[in-house]
Amino acid sequence: MSLSVPILYEDGDCVVFNKPSGLLVIPTEKNEQHTLVTIVNEGRAPKDHLYPAHRIDRDTSGVILFAKGKERQQALMQFFKEKRVHKTYIALAHGHLKETSGKIRIPVKDFHQRKFARHLPAQSALTHYEVEDYYKDFTLVKVMPITGRTNQIRIHFAKIGHPLVGEDKYAFRRDFELRFRRTALHAWRLEWPKIDGKGMNHVQAELAQDMKDFLEKHKD
């Protein structure tokens, strides 16, 4: 297994990895083979294969949950559908958010696994956020998406006029002086029910090194 994808937690039902940025979770229609799924299953027998219970963007670093077997994958995915999984991200947003905490409730189109999604109506989407710190030209934010639409956090912050640092899909990089090689978004914490019903699991991934370096560089 690649040392670049460390294990954060493991039990009889699942494995949690700390995904590096720049890596797809599963192959796309372009059939890219260098993905997290292929890396973590390298050398595993078919009966021991791991299956992702959810996805995070290629650019996004941090916590991602895999199930041991398809039956457990379905159980974990059901927790996500029932909104019993709590996700917390760390993001860097351009400018200074006026409110130190708030909710962003803006419908978005969910393109996840929907070939013709562009022709579908937007769906409700809700994101909570809390400001952690203000820097000269950006805000360090803790983000809790309540719904799980594709690119929801990136879209929501762009819509309120504070796109994430490094954003190049929902904002024009040339409009901002700050530069970052990717979208500054890190899956920091995940909390989900144990499959046996006996309590909750919770795992955190230390902030990615490139985001740490960026914060250090821009300290007052």
Model regions low in confidence, pLDDT < 50 over at least 5 residues = none
What structural class do you assign from the helix and strand content?
Answer: alpha+beta
Radius of gyration: 18 Å
CATH fold annotation: Pseudouridine synthase
What name goes with the CATH superfamily? Pseudouridine synthase
List SSEs in N-to-C order.
Answer: EEHEEHEEEEHEEH
CA-based shape:
globular
Instruction: Please state the second-level CATH architecture.
Output: 2-Layer Sandwich
Strand content: 25-35%
Name of the CATH first level:
Alpha Beta
Average pLDDT taken over every residue:
92
Number of strands: 10
Count every helix, treating DSSP H or I runs of 4 or more residues as helices: 4
Q: How many domain modules?
A: 1
Largest sheet: 10 strands, mixed
**Helix share of residues?**
10-25%
Separation of the first and last Cα atoms: 40 Å
